[in-house]
Write a structure and sequence with these properties.
Layout lengths: L4 H12 L3 E4 L2 E4 L4 E3 L10 H11 L1 E4 L5 H17 L21 E2 L4 H4 L2 H7 L2 H11 L3 E3 L4 E5 L5 E4 L2 H4 L7 E6 L10 E5 L5 H5 L6 H4 L9 H6 L4 E4 L7 E4 L5 E3 L8 E10 L29 H8 L2
Parallel strand pairs: 3-11
Antiparallel strand pairs: 1-2, 4-12, 5-7, 6-14, 7-14, 8-13, 9-12, 9-14, 10-11, 10-13
Helix pairs in contact: 3-5
Length: 314
């Protein structure tokens, strides 16, 4: 029998006090330096409480937000695309998602036939998804044309950043929804939040105000989770994600993904939502993948984050 999201959650909670979380070369004590994300599925029908948690805690983690069957359909769709590009281990079932060597990540951002496929849009553009964000914002919403469909192979990861540095033009009243499409235990590259980072005024006023394309600055704030715990005092938040689980957060939540230590692809998708009547970030709108996106300054030299942090005394 396949365990449900709730079963996985209960199992993880029972073990968390005696577990360690391996984040690259760094090890953290689960239950102290790294904790379980709070599940807000209990408040799914209470808009005021969801809004309060989002303001206070900086995120909403909702188990089973998308129907599991729909999430798995999107997973299988994406794995088929990886298989067609030679990314899966030969002579193994596609649904196992085993990484072929040499390991390759597959970011399908501009591969419209994959990232805008019907199984993907059935999740991120569904009536249920839009109705949820319209309740949260209390007005009609729109979503970016670009969808960040990520397939992380063995060793693949992202580093710590604020989304505002990448996608912060126009309104700041904008939310990211990160959706898990594969079962993602702690060793398979889970999303990690720096809890409380949305209230760190110095970080927000310095690094958080940069626009990587306008200012020609490196966008990653840190590759070192240990300094974010020891020097900035953040607690890391993560969990064992199941297909269909989501994490929703604003433009100033520091986050990353841990390295995928498994031999299976970790697949997720990031989508952005905002009130339809507020200013857009025009870099991410355009039909058939014709959006500008980031890194459009060909041949530009970007100021290093080390230099910037020295300037900011961070």
């Amino acid at each position: 029998m396949i365990p449900s999201s709730l079963d996985t959650h209960k199992s993880m909670r029972s073990k968390s006090s005696q577990r360690f979380f391996q984040f690259g070369k760094h090890q953290f004590r689960f239950g102290k330096e790294v904790v379980e994300l709070r599940d807000s599925s209990d408040a799914l029908d209470n808009t005021r409480e969801l809004q309060r948690r989002l303001r206070s805690e900086g995120y909403l983690f909702i188990r089973g937000f998308h129907p599991r069957a729909h999430a798995l359909a999107a997973t299988n769709w994406t794995l088929q695309a990886i298989s067609e590009r030679g990314g899966l281990k030969p002579e193994t079932p596609i649904q196992e998602g085993l990484v072929a060597l040499p390991a390759r990540n597959f970011p399908f951002f501009r591969v419209i036939e994959v990232s805008h496929g019907e199984p993907i849009l059935n999740l991120v553009n569904s009536d249920t998804t839009f109705a949820f964000f319209e309740r949260l914002f209390e007005k009609p919403v729109l979503t970016f044309d670009k969808r960040w469909l990520r397939c992380m192979a063995t060793g693949g990861q992202n580093h710590f950043h604020y989304d505002n540095v990448y996608v912060g033009r126009g309104t700041k009243n904008r939310l990211t929804m990160w959706t898990a499409l594969t079962d993602t235990p702690l060793d398979q590259g889970p999303l990690v939040l720096c809890l409380g980072s949305h209230k760190h005024e110095r970080l927000k006023a310095t690094y958080g105000q940069t626009d990587m394309d306008r200012d020609l600055t490196e966008a990653v704030f840190s590759e070192n989770p240990r300094e974010l715990v020891d020097d900035f005092g953040f607690t890391l938040g993560t969990t064992h994600y199941s297909p269909g689980d989501v994490v929703i957060f604003g433009m100033f939540m520091m986050h990353s993904s841990a390295p995928n230590q498994s031999d299976k692809y970790r697949i997720s998708i990031d989508t952005r939502y905002q009130p339809a009547n507020e200013a857009k970030d025009e870099r991410f709108f355009g039909e058939n993948g014709k959006w500008q996106g980031n890194f459009y300054n060909q041949g530009a030299v970007y100021r290093s984050m080390q230099e910037l942090r020295s300037q900011w005394k961070l």
